[in-house]
Write a structure and sequence with these properties.
Layout (H helix, E strand, L loop, with lengths): L2 E4 L8 E6 L5 E7 L8 E2 L6 E4 L4 E5 L5 E6 L6 E2 L18 E2 L13
Antiparallel strand pairs: 1-2, 2-3, 4-5, 5-6, 6-7, 8-9
């Protein structure tokens, strides 16, 4: 278990997810695509940390600080198009502009593993 939180992006620093050990020393930090202003959650069993950024992405970071997956929500309208990615490329929506919440189980979550 760690103390996990997100930071805001500004002109000097990127947005980050940070996990501290119980003694206050750095466990890991990961740069993310935009500010993290909401609650950051940690799974007590696995140590995976989950956070959402202001640009509509959700991140899962393993207990060792490696990105487990990244999910593009598609904004307030649900998930749009194909959000698949390969290797460590940034996932992005296709040109398909039809949006539906029913696509949630079909697109979005991807794993570099």
């Amino acid at each position: 278990m760690s103390i996990s939180f997100g930071t805001r992006q500004d002109s000097r620093d990127p947005a980050r997810l940070i996990a501290l050990k119980r003694d206050g020393t750095l466990r890991w930090q990961v740069n993310v695509s935009a500010s993290v202003e909401g609650e950051v959650l940690e799974d007590r069993k696995t140590g995976v940390v989950y956070a959402a950024s202001n640009d509509g992405k959700i991140f899962a970071v393993q207990s060792d600080g490696r990105l487990l997956w990244r999910y593009i929500t598609g904004g307030a309208g649900g998930v749009c198009g194909d959000h698949s990615k390969t290797d460590d490329e940034e996932a992005s929506p296709s040109e398909n502009t039809l949006c539906s919440f029913s696509e949630l189980g079909l697109h979005g979550a991807t794993s570099p593993l």
